[in-house]
Amino acid sequence: MPKPILEVQELHKHFHTAADQVVKSVDGISLTIQPGETLGLVGESGSGKSTLGKTVVGLLEPTSGKVVFHGQNIATARGSQKRELNRNMQMIFQDPHASLNPRFRVGDIIAEGIDAYRLARGQARRDRVAELLERVGLHPDHAARYPHEFSGGQRQRIGIARALAVKPQFIVADEPISALDVSIQAQIVNLLKDLQQEEGLSYLFIAHDLAMVKHISDRIGVMYLGKMMELADRDSLFMEPLHPYTKALLSAVPASNPSAKRLRERIVLHGDPPSPLSPPVGCPFHARCPAATEICVRYIPEGKEVRPNHWVACHLF
Amino acid sequence: MNVTSTKLDQPLDHLFHPVDRSQLADQTLAYTSVPMWKDKIRKLVRNKLAVIGLALLLLIMLLAAIGPSLLPHSPSAQSLTQTNLPPSAEHWFGTDDLGRDVWARTWAGARISLLIGFAAAAIDLIIGIIVGGISGYMAGRSRFGDRIDSILMRIVEILYSIPYLLVIILLLVVMKPGILTMIVALSITGWVGMARVVRGQMLLLKQQEYVLAASKLGTSHAKIIFKHLLPNAAGIIIVNLTFTIPAAIFSESFLSFLGLGVQAPIASWGTMANDSLGVILSGQWWRLFFPGFMISLTMFAFNAFGDGLQDVLDPRSHQ
After folding, report:
1. CA-to-CA distance for A216 and A41, rounded, in angstroms?
2. If residue B21 lies in a helix (H) or strand (E), which one and from where to where?
């Protein structure tokens, strides 16, 4: 197996509320991403997937645990080494209306990283911006316009061009399609896939739409209340989900073929996810789990490799 | 029931025809790209009340600049033969009990009031942006940052709780009453409002994804503050200014009216109103009316303009 480009080891990110309560948004997550691979991350809102993404790229400081990029711990890197790590890990944001400064022209938005890392100036900078715009399917003339003149999908393309400008190796895409029309979502996902092949990028792709995640990911992780419940190859996760939570999630995906739909049973979860302020003792999912037993209420299940490359954190296995 | 008789299996050629490809590829602009501020000025001009407010403000400022020289009377020249004259062609706003021209004194007073208002607001703005900016930018960044934010905000709260009347009375103990004292007194307590507004904006804006993106792209702190945060907070800061300037002008008039502000012989709207209190019952209405009217008009103009500006620059506040 090749050396992973990114290793996350026992990562925790806790927040303190005003009332001195602790929210464990990310609670002991470990994962690896291989060069050129896409790891999809799904989970309900509040499951900590966005926090995980922001902590991985260094926008948030981890409470404990390590993020290792190309064998280098990003927390201990300093100076030019740190800048190099930062440049190599970029992020694509969720809300294309909030992720572009309304006062900048598109060309300056895209060139922000180019300027910060002094990658190009003058004519070379303009050429690079034009090249990036064409790369993401926009017109070079768009550089002179302002973000409010673009649609959501076009803005997301601008956000992608901005991340690509510094030639990163790894990109965290934090729900890049959830704010877009369904008809535009596929375009953006396909653009990300094309760019991955051309540039050899690795992605951590965060979403809550299983169909899109399935389309783009090589492996998929399922998060619930800050913990990784199941992590497996895309096909084995979809064909043979092990964790009851994963099964419930998959049963909620609308089937495109109505006759296939009758074959499977819809598993309806009762209740809302517990408040992250007071997570349940034992398995975080036990209160909503159809298969919960005595042990689930008492002990937190450990992640086990039940089959090769298929990890699950559940007492059933 | 089939109203339109077109069936799907019929050829639809009469409805559709292929587009000429050469017309498709053209993505050039059909209009000129408009920067945001131009768009906002257009919106502001469409707001009648704001335009009236701005026009009144400009008129007041113009008259403050040239008003006294429109008549051949000096604001401080006394003429004991011409006391307490009603408004006339000779004296447009009449004269006071020392024979001084009220028109000239009104616009000389406007200079003082506007000077103190703008100077106090400018000092508020500078201190407010520095303190609020540091506080909001540092908050939540680290343990040290939280501590800085917390210290600055406690200072703000303490100053906020002291009434400015008390501050100015205390200041008068150590400083001579006058324009400088007024400016100092108004800005000692005045900047805290601006600091709070700026801090709030910083806290809000630094969570915006474009600021996160900038820091991820390696943009320096200085650039993030001056290119991303402050320009996007500018709208709300300007709106706030249109409320702090008239507040400072009103405070000046009020304090001068009480005798705590600028001292005779300097004219100010507040001192003129105070001087005329004794004679209002004897029918010399013009001595109280003109300074009082100017205070009201200035307040109205600033508020009308500020309100229109708020609609344009801070649309969320009017939802």
Report:
1. 11
2. helix B21-24
Q: Which residue bears the tokens 């053209």?
A: B26
**Token pair belonging to A53:** 């993404």
Residue type for position A37: E
B120: amino acid identity, one letter? A
Q: Which of A112, A119, A134 to mutate to test the interface with B (most CBs of B within 10 A)?
A: A112
**Using alpha carbons only, how large is chain B's radius of gyration in Å?**
28
CB A153 within 8 A of CB A180: yes
Residue range of the domain that includes A299: 240-317
Of A102, A114, A199, A194, the C-alpha closest to A155 is A102
- A188-198 residue pLDDT tens: 899 999 999 99
Q: Could you tell me the sign of the dihedral formed by the alpha carbons of A92, A93, A95, A96, in that order?
A: negative
The minimum CA-CA distance between A236 and chain B, rounded to whole Å, is 35
A151 Cβ under 8 Å from any chain B Cβ: no
Question: Mutate which of B38, B205, B216 to test chain A, going by most A C-beta atoms within 10 A?
Answer: B216
- The neighbouring-strand residues paired with A220 are A40, A232
* Model confidence, pTM: 0.78
What does the pLDDT profile of chain B (319 residues) look like in tens digits?
A: 444 555 555 666 677 777 666 655 555 555 566 667 777 788 888 888 888 889 998 998 998 888 777 777 777 777 777 777 777 777 777 777 777 888 888 888 888 888 988 999 999 999 999 999 999 888 877 788 888 889 999 999 998 888 878 887 888 788 887 888 888 888 888 889 899 999 999 999 988 889 999 988 888 888 898 888 988 888 888 888 888 888 888 888 888 888 887 777 778 888 888 888 777 777 777 778 888 888 889 899 988 888 888 888 766 654 4
Does the residue A257 lie in any domain?
A: yes
B17's CB contacts (< 8 A; 6+ apart) are none
CA distances from B207 to B141, B203, B213 (A): 12, 7, 10
Percentages of chain B per state (helix, strand, coil), in multiples of 5: 70, 0, 30
A269 within domain boundaries: yes
- Whole-number Å distance between alpha carbons of B120 and B245: 8
Is A301 within a domain? Answer: yes
Q: In this structure, how many other beta carbons lie within 10 angstroms of the beta carbon of residue B258? A: 13
CB distance from A90 to chain B under 8 Å? yes
Count structural domains, chain A. Answer: 1
Residue B261 vs residues A298, B49, B168, B299: alpha-carbon distances, Å: 73, 32, 9, 19
Sheet with A227-233: list strands edge to edge: A89-92, A170-174, A202-206, A38-42, A219-224, A227-233, A310-312, A304-307
Tens digits of residue pLDDT in A225-282: 889 999 999 999 988 889 989 888 888 777 666 665 555 667 777 777 777 777 778 8
Is A298 part of any domain? Answer: yes
Question: Cβ contact (<8 Å) for B36 and A148?
Answer: yes
What is the Cα–Cα distance from A148 to B130, expressed in whole angstroms? Answer: 30
Interatomic CA distance for residues B305 and B250, integer angstroms: 16
CB B97 within 8 A of CB B84: yes
Cα separations in angstroms, B188 against A69, A285, B177, B194: 51, 56, 16, 12
Residue A51 in contact with partner chain B when CB distance is under 8 A = no
Q: Which residues of A touch B24 (CB under 8 A)?
A: none
Residue B139 in contact with residue B128, Cβ under 8 Å? no
A84/chain B closest Cα distance in angstroms = 10
